[in-house]
Amino acid sequence: MKYNLLGNTGVLVSEIGLGAMTFGGGGQWGVFGGLGEQDAAQLVWQALDAGVNFFDTSNIYAGGRSEEILGKALGAKRQDVIIATKVRGRTGSGPNDLGLSRLHIMRQVEESLKRLGTDYIDLYQIHNPDQLTDWEETLRALDDLVRSGKVRYIGSSNMTGWELMKARGISRELGLHAFKSSQSYYSLAGRDIEREIIPVLKDQNMGLLVWSPLAGGFLSGKYARTRTGNSDDRHTKFAFPPVDVEKAYSIIDVLEDIAKNRESTVARIALAWVLNQPAVTSVVVGAKRPDQLQDNLEASGIVLTDDELARLDEVSRLPIEYPAWPFMEEDDSIIRKHP
């Protein structure tokens, strides 16, 4: 297992992390996995044995059961790992049971600490922006949690580039602890964050934690032009994140060819592409079975060739959008005339 710095924190996290969305789900969360304590613990220990030290969950996954199960599974290993969880989503029927107000954040951090069975959270992330709450209130509340020792670092998730810069600017102006990372969707079938989010992260020296690197399972190898998957597959039940299916099929064609030549799997090659992107800190994978997790973990040892990367880039790259296209072939004649 390889380890990368989490932004400018000095903290090293495994380049593959284990997501706990598959833990404990019932009802609407059952589509993601619904693993009980024993099955979830097996995956956690399998990940630990492989060198994984980054585990990600949320206060809303399975109504909090995900945090409970993850905390129990880690047990005495808690001190050896980085636990990330989130706040923002609805946790009850009341009008204040959601959002990023000081009220909701302070309530939820205590609940998450209790469920995880720990007295501190390594990375506390806002799950989504909150359009109703002033950024200063949210950031001051998060800063207080860091200063109190209940949270080590704060991170963001699912934010736009301008929102990240605005939040960083407010934190700098007020002398508050700032977001150290962004958890964002990124895959061969969804490269949108390359437009503005990745440039911001590079400029601000922030970490990038990737969710759904297999596009909700569409790049798992179960789907192709001649295969539609099984009725029990997650993507069949819940097609999220959205995928341009025809473009994705073309991507899968290239993935299958590279996987065949390497005697590997489509999922490993798709994950390896994400791992090969320089801005990526850690790729969060989810699994329901040990064999799925093992296949994902083995992507860590794959180094794609320049030719393989070029083929995958060609079939998956984003179209150029304004304001980038006016400068695609910038005239350097002035530089040549006046060195």
Describe what you observe in this structure.
The protein is α/β, with parallel strands linked by helices. The chain is built from twelve helices and twelve strands. It has helices spanning 37-49, 65-74, 102-116, 135-148, 161-174, 197-204, 234-237, 245-262, 266-275, 290-297, 306-316, 333-337; strands at 3-5, 12-14, 16-19, 54-56, 82-87, 121-126, 151-157, 179-185, 207-211, 223-224, 227-228, 282-285. The strands form three sheets. The protein has an eight-stranded parallel barrel with strand order 3-4-5-6-7-8-9-12, surrounded by six helices. Strands 1-2 form a two-stranded antiparallel sheet. Helix 5 links the parallel strand 7 and strand 8 (179-185). The longest helix is centred in the C-terminal third of the chain and has 18 residues, at 245-262. The model has no long low-confidence stretch (mean pLDDT 93).
Count of DSSP strands = 12
- Helix residue percentage: 25-40%
- Based on CA atoms alone, the radius of gyration comes out at 20 Å
Count of DSSP H/I helices: 12
Q: What are the low-pLDDT stretches, counting only 5+ consecutive residues below 50?
A: none
In which order are the strands of the major sheet placed?
3-4-5-6-7-8-9-12
Amino- and carboxy-terminal Cα gap: 47 Å
Task: State the shape.
Answer: globular
SSE order in H/E notation?
Answer: EEEHEHEHEHEHEHEEEHHHEHHH
Strand percentage, roughly?
Answer: 15-25%
Assembly status? single chain
Averaging pLDDT over every residue, what do you get? 93
The computed structural class is alpha/beta
The major beta sheet can be summarized as: 8 strands, parallel, barrel
